[in-house]
Amino acid sequence: MHSVHEHREYLRQQAAQLPNPAAGFFGPGSMAWQLNREVLLGLVVLRALFLQVAHPKVAQGVAEHSDFRRRPFARALATLRAQQTIVFGTADEASEALLRIYARHTAVRGAGYEANDPSLLFWVYATLIDSMFFAYRTFLPDLSPRQWAAFYEEGKLFGRLIGIPSELVPPTKADFDAWMTAALQPGGEIRVSPDGYAIGRSLLRMPIALFQPLTAFIAAGTLPPRLRAEFGLGWGAGRQRVFAALAGGLRRLLPYTPEVLHVAPAYWVALRRANQAQ
Q1: Which of 113, 139, 111, 166 is nearest to 35 (CA)?
Q2: Whole-model pTM?
Q3: DSSP 8-state symbol, 158
Q4: Radius of gyration of the chain (CA)
Q5: Contact call for residues 161 and 86 (beta carbons, < 8 A)
């Protein structure tokens, strides 16, 4: 585990090797840009957050070092903004966001955990990668094995940038999928603790009451069945049919939808900036 100073130096060295710092660590030709630009990825943000706090130590850290009960969406918004900046920001913007996260995590520690523990960082990283895979299997047109392999390789860079040692990251997507399947098996470390349950319930409290059932429906539909039950999210065959129909409709409709309606503004801003800097 690096000190903040060591991580700053690592990020500086990585940024110095970039051919176009205005394009950031990934750039227009990357799978990271192509995949992260889709606004439908917002449908799996709750999935990633629920998975993260299904790790008892992550949940303990959130419970002891955040005001999630008063501001339940702060973590969701912070996750979205940080990911967008790291992927689409300039090298300086991404480095600043990465260092800010790493430095903040140094203070998040307690009995039996610390946020910059590489194994906990890897679990958070794994929830983001796995939720991306889920989104493209469910709501978006799936990718070819070659495209997934390229994206997974780029994800290893993302992991190093947030402080995960390379040896912790499974070498291939197939290895990662097997690791994730094993991690989610009953009886393992991933289980919903009382802290995790309370945080999960807080995430369902939409500011507009009308949308709370929809939030719960999306969260339940995207989670693995065991964790869905442990979080107390109701489900059944009828809801599964509705979810599958909606997901299939989105997947079939997307190719015919104008890009302006389904591509995140951050992508267009980053693309213009990268092209101007060439």
Answers
A1: 139
A2: 0.93
A3: H
A4: 19
A5: yes
